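My main concern about presentation is that the manuscript never shows what a single data entry looks like. In essence, backbone conformation is discretised, so a fold becomes a row of integers matching the chain in length. An entry of this sort, consisting of the sequence and the corresponding backbone structure tokens, reads as follows:
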Amino acid sequence: MAIVQVTIVPLGTGSTSVSEYVAAVKKELDQAAEEIRYQLTPMSTIIEGELDDLLAVVRRLHEVPFRAGALRVSTTVTIDDRRDKKGSMQQKLDSVEEKLRE
């Protein structure tokens, strides 16, 4: 299982507000046919699932601001793809919490 962090920035919108675009991205995530889990954060979205599925989802998410009228979109993607053991968003958080208790 892979974890992807994606930040999508609409440009050329005439406004500094992006919450409308974030809401549209969330709707797209909610409708995804792929088996994914996601977490919105104040600065990006974290998605976990199979890598091929994640890449397909990110491709669709990149298109969301264009459909909403953005003239340009800048998308940044970070992929954490660990193959030696199964990982998840929760597993990563639990690992840190465990270290804090030591």
User: Anything to note?
Assistant: The longest strand covers residues 2-11. Residues 51-67 form the longest helix (17 residues).
